[in-house]
Each structure stands twice: as C-alpha cells, then as structure tokens.
Amino acid sequence: MKLLIIRFSSIGDLTQALSIPSFVKSYVPKAQIHFVTRGDLAQLLENHPNIDKLWSLEKSLGFSGLLKIISELRTEDYTHVYDAHNNLRSALIRLFLWKPKKLVRPMHRLKRYLLIQWHINLFEKPFSGQRDLIKPLEKWGMPFRLPEPPQLFLNSEVVNQAEQILKQHGVNSEFIALAPSATYELKRWPISYWHNFVQLNPDKKFVVLAGPADDFTNELNSETNVINLTGKTNLLQSAAIVQKAKAVVCNDTGLLHFAEQLGKPAIALMGPAPFGFPSRPSTRILEKDLWCRPCSKHGQGPCKNPNFQECLRSFSAEEVSKNLEQIL
After folding, report:
1. Is the pLDDT of residue 275 over 90?
2. Cβ-proximal residues to 258 (8 Å cutoff; 6+ apart), any chain
C-alpha cells in the first residue's frame, strides 16, 4: 500500500486527521503514507512517526502551486488515496493522478445539508469527528478503532520553548489551560462567564491561550489567578503548553483537538456546530439538546434562537466548575 492522505484545513480538522496514519499502519505496518496539507499547518505533522513523506501546498502560490504539487504527486504511483477534504483542490489532485486508485472520501455533503437545513440527521450519534474520519476505512478491511494518544507529536525544542514561556510568566506549578476563543463568535462561551468561572476557582492557576487577534481575552487580565498568553505563543508552543496542563477547558476550537490528541483531560463547551465533536473518553462534552442545534456547519451563524446563543449561555460557571472538579 502506498497511500496519499489529503487534508488542507482547518487546524481542528487537520489535528483530528492525525489519527489516520497510525490507524492505517496498525493494519498495514509496511504501508508508505504520504500526507498533503496547507503549508502554514504542515508543522503539526512534521514530527509524526507514521507519516513517511509530508507535502506542503503554499497558499500564496495559488493555482500554479497546486499544479506544481500535482505534477510532483503524479510521480509517486499511489495505490490508495484518502481524500479527507473533498473540495475543488483535492478533487483536482485526484483527477490528475490519472491511474485507477482505491479511494475514500468521508465528506457527506448531502447528509450535511439535510442536517443543517432540515435537521434530518443521518449521521451516527453521538457525533464524533475522529470516528467519522476513520470508519470509512472499513471499506479497505480495517475495522474501526481509535488509535491511542498521543497522535500529536512535539519535538523537544518546542517543549523547551513552552517551558521557558511558562517560566517567564511565573507559572511554576500545576495549571489549567483555557481556550476562550474560537473562529466564530457564536462558538465562544461569553467572556463574562469565563470571568465567573475563574473567580469560582481561586485556588487554581489558569493559563489563557489564544491568537494575537483575540484581544477580548484581555478582560481576564484583572483576575489574579490568570496568566494570559494571548498572542504570545505559536501553534506548536500552544500545543506544548496544553501538553503540560493538568486539564483544558475549551470552546469548540483547535486547542480542543490538541488536548484530545495529546490525551489530556478536557471539558468541551459545544455550541452551534455539529462536526468538531471530540472522540476520546478523556474529554467531557457539555452540550444542550435544543431545537435549533446545529444552526450552521462551522458555527458562523446566524443564531436562530430567540434566546441568543442559548446553546452556550445555558452553561453556568458553576456547572463548568463542577465538571472540572470531577475530571481532575
């Protein structure tokens, strides 16, 4: 078997797909596994022991970059292709590889449409991102099982960098990592709730992780038990800090899947979107069964509930605190 896996984005989806190479090699140890992804996210795969060759598609090169990488992939003579993205770019790669291949495409666009537009659910419940990625491989004679963590592999240099960042900010003891951001605002537990949650746990140290544009997290700076690292870590450093945390409390975002693939205990605050659901027993899922969920594919909205963002605002700080105590 010589397998090409295609997955370009997003951070969370790509992180969930990191289980695929290990799963395949558990059945076919001598398989050659190549993985093509977006250049700015390739760092998440660089240290993966079950990926034999990593291909990076640079977004800045546009269509010419896609044609170049297709030309190079055509020389590899793949026997199997796993298209975990199933968009125009990945379809072009499949098309121009020419030779007949054993193919898996797990994206069920019709089922997604029926779920979002008409709330007709043909997906297996409960939702599970990694299960839905791995189970299609049963057509190749590989019965489903979820590879044990870790499936996100960090090198010692990144781990040392994370240790230095924590040390520079006075984090010398156990801490809980918080991920209060998400790509879309509707997927964010309101910042006032995070305030209340932190205040209910004065005996705990919290480390906030978020991107440089997430300046709304500055509102947590007034809390004495919060170290705010918003914009102060890159992608891999954030993953290494998650690895060092005692537990993680997070919205439906990429850091949730970092925690999953590192095997860290986590609380997932799941709101409007259906497809980023965690899959491991180390993660406790908090969600509300509402008539309006899911309201959109990625949580981009609009909110259809008269009680705005009820799916997340219905989680009290007390409820999240209780669940944190239980997973600890």
Report:
1. no
2. 15, 152, 238, 239, 242
Lowest mean pLDDT segment, chosen from 125-134, 192-201, 236-245: 125-134
- Report the alpha-carbon distance of residue 121 to residue 178 in Å, rounded: 32
pLDDT tens-digit readout, 294-322: 999 899 999 999 999 999 999 999 999 99
| DSSP H stretches of helix in the chain | 11-16, 19-27, 62-73, 88-96, 109-118, 129-134, 156-168, 191-199, 235-244, 254-262, 310-313, 317-327
- Distance CA(181)–CA(256), nearest Å, equals 11
Span 93-112, mean pLDDT? 85
The encoded tokens of residue 272 equal 């409007």
Are 278 and 261 in contact by the 8 Å Cβ rule? The answer is no
Report the distance separating Cα 14 and Cα 196, nearest Å: 32
**Residue/partner pairs of 63-66 with CB below 8 Å, 24 or more apart:** 66/92, 66/93
Q: What sign has the CA pseudo-torsion 263, 327, 250, 177?
A: negative
Nearest alpha-carbon partner for 159 in 84, 214, 275, 240: 240
Kindly state whether residues 285 and 164 are assigned to the same domain.
yes
| Whether the predicted pLDDT of 100 surpasses 80 | no
Q: Give residue 232's identity as a one-letter amino acid code.
A: K
- Alpha-carbon distance of 8 to 86, in angstroms, equals 10
Residues 122 and 182 occupy one common structural domain: no
Cα torsion through 153, 133, 211, 284, rounded to 10: -90
Residue 104: name the closest of 74, 76, 73, 141 by CA: 141
pLDDT one-digit tens code per residue, 166-215: 999 999 999 999 999 999 999 999 999 999 999 999 999 999 999 999 99
Backbone angles phi, psi at 40, to 5 degrees: -75, -10
CATH code (residue 29): 3.40.50.2000
| Gap between the Cα atoms of 94 and 144, Å rounded | 25
pTM reported for the whole predicted model: 0.95
The last residue of a domain, from among 71, 105, 140: 140
